[in-house]
Design brief:
alpha+beta; 2 helices; 5-stranded antiparallel sheet; 29% strand
Length: 75
């Protein structure tokens, strides 16, 4: 996993992994969430990947727009 840069300084995200069609996000509480082209969909996943690579905005986007619309979660 790649460390999330957390440029805003207050994110609950610590790391992420991307593929061509998905992003897996690891939160401070130890949970990993997989988001892909099925859930929440290609547009959101592309946007989330861009934010993850920029190190800013991802946690807020998930809280505001994605919420519980993930494909899978695990520890």
């Amino acid at each position: 996993m790649e460390k999330y840069q957390n440029r805003g300084g207050n994110s609950g995200i610590i790391a992420f992994t991307t593929t061509e069609d998905s992003i897996t996000v690891k939160f401070k509480d130890g949970w990993h969430y997989i988001y892909n082209i099925i859930r929440p969909g290609v547009t959101d996943v592309d946007h989330m990947i861009a934010m993850a690579k920029a190190g800013s905005g991802l946690h807020g986007y998930i809280n505001r727009k994605i919420r519980n619309n993930h494909f899978h979660k695990f520890r």
